[in-house]
Design brief:
Blueprint: E1 3-7, E2 13-17, E3 20-25, H1 31-43, E4 54-58, E5 63-64, E6 68-71, E7 76-77, E8 80-86, E9 92-99, E10 101-102, H2 103-106, H3 110-114, E11 119-121, E12 126-127, H4 128-131, E13 139-145, E14 151-158, H5 165-175, E15 182-185, E16 201-208, E17 213-223
Parallel strand pairs: 3-15, 5-11, 6-17
Antiparallel strand pairs: 1-2, 3-4, 7-10, 8-9, 8-15, 9-11, 9-12, 13-14, 13-16, 16-17
Length: 229
């Protein structure tokens, strides 16, 4: 179980004791975008899903606010997403998150790959009610930095490209899981072609062009030591 703390725009803080963690997949509003993401994954050997959108339960302790992610090999990468977070008072919050995924394991099962690395959440959030009316305008971007030290834009889109939080609120309500401690990741937007996703650093930004407010996170990807045996 993870305990997360978020700072809101008024500088107050909210605590979330994570009891349920879900990763949405293939959750674009545009079927063309969904097909593009399926094609991206197919290049990595991931079979197409039986149905879209998908929803994968993830171990709650993998919801983390960290600046380092330990990985077992070189074929892991992130995904820029927003996260719907129900805080301990029951209020829905919105924040930025990077779903770090084991691409090698993904070829055997998406649900397995989602449980191999943490979902890295930002430490700032917005009350969902404050952005709900213009949520589609929110921008979602990700950058990667490799060993050469050069930062490259790898994802660039808007929240309007993804199924809205309201959709997932209803899904969770119908399942009886819209409760304090629930965290749901939105699924991701397509990656920019020809950018190496297997990078040393991932950075994600969720921004509100109406207010100029931004929610940022960044973390370093660190290989684990070689095993013995």
């Amino acid at each position: 179980m993870s305990v997360l703390t978020f700072t809101l725009p008024d500088d107050s803080q909210r605590t979330v004791t994570v009891t349920r963690l879900f990763n949405a997949g293939y959750a674009g509003r545009s079927q063309a975008d969904v097909a593009a993401h399926v094609a991206e994954l197919a290049e990595l050997g991931v079979p197409a899903p039986d149905t879209t959108p998908a929803l994968y339960p993830v171990s709650p302790y993998l919801a983390q606010q960290t600046r380092r992610v330990a990985v077992q090999h070189a074929r892991t990468s992130g995904e820029a997403e927003w996260a719907l977070v129900v805080d301990d008072t029951g209020e829905p919050l919105l924040t930025a998150v990077c779903d770090h995924t084991d691409r090698q394991l993904e070829a055997y099962g998406v649900a397995w790959s989602k449980n191999a690395s943490p979902d890295v959440l930002a430490d700032r959030a917005w009350p969902l009610a404050e952005v709900a009316e213009h949520l589609d305008e929110l921008t979602l971007r990700a950058w990667v930095t490799d060993s050469d030290g050069r930062e490259r834009l790898i994802q660039d889109g808007t929240a309007g490209e993804l199924l809205a939080p309201a959709y997932w609120v209803e899904v969770l309500r119908e399942r009886g899981e819209l409760e304090p401690g629930t965290v749901l990741l939105s699924g991701t937007i397509p990656m920019v072609p020809d950018i190496d996703q297997f990078a040393h650093i991932w950075r994600v930004q969720l921004a509100d062009p109406r207010t100029g407010h931004e929610i940022d996170l960044a973390y370093e990807v660190r290989p684990m030591p070689e095993p013995i045996g």
